[in-house]
Amino acid sequence: GAGVSQSPSNKVTEKGKDVELRCDPISGHTALYWYRQSLGQGLEFLIYFQGNSAPDKSGLPSDRFSAERTGGSVSTLTIQRTQQEDSAVYLCASSLEGRKLFFGSGTQLSVL
Amino acid sequence: GENVEQHPSTLSVQEGDSAVIKCTYSDSASNYFPWYKQELGKRPQLIIDIRSNVGEKKDQRIAVTLNKTAKHFSLHITETQPEDSAVYFCAAGFGGYQKVTFGTGTKLQVIP
Predict the structure, then answer these.
(1) B41 has a chain A CB within 8 A of its CB
(2) Which residue in A48, A56, A98 is closest to B32 by CB distance?
(3) Chain segment B34-45, per-residue pLDDT in tens
(4) In chain A, which residues have their Cβ closer than 8 Å to the Cβ of B87?
(5) What is the dihedral sign for C-alpha B52, B56, B57, B63?
(6) Could you read off the pLDDT of A69-101 as tens digits, one per residue?
(7) Diameter of chain A measured on Cα atoms
(8) How far apart are CA A87 and CA A112, in angstroms?
(9) Cβ-contact B103, B23 below 8 angstroms
(10) Buried b (16+ CB within 10 A) or exposed e, A42-74
(11) Is the dihedral of CA B1, A59, A3, B41 positive or negative?
């Protein structure tokens, strides 16, 4: 595809369940970011992947959150034992190093 | 790591007036300063960026200025229109393999 693709677009889950969110970056983009955005709020940085370097996990809010990026392409953000405060839009973005970020349309996560 | 502060958090202007959003950054090594616009319910998109070898850059009604000595940069929107209403994010980065760090966002409302 031409842009960053995220799936699912919407996810409703029950408190305590695990969820997996997927991001397909633009082909060839070496950098990949995950952000969380609560309603009306800013972009909360979660994790940053750059090529084969160790990811920058400094934004992950707790050990319930993890992410991986396989083969330098697709990334999965996993949230274990979801809580109601995890409800937000999760945005993925990719870029060539040091250049414009292209954002996906996000996954709206609702934890009931 | 880099820290980016952005002001004001909200801004209301009359249609046709100018709007100015200001950001400061902490890492003097940063040399790339993009601005993103996020319309309601949509993904952030790059509207303009500036690199540290340039003091000012203009694109139609929007301009960005950079003061590296003071470590601050600003977005100027002239002749504002209702479609300029959105949240604007500034960011700073080093380029290469360093991540881009976002400010907290400014919600701009243009009143017709």
Answers:
(1) no
(2) A98
(3) 999 999 999 999
(4) 42
(5) positive
(6) 988 799 999 999 999 999 999 999 999 876 889
(7) 38
(8) 9
(9) yes
(10) bbbbbbbbbeeeebbeebbeeeebebebeeeee
(11) negative
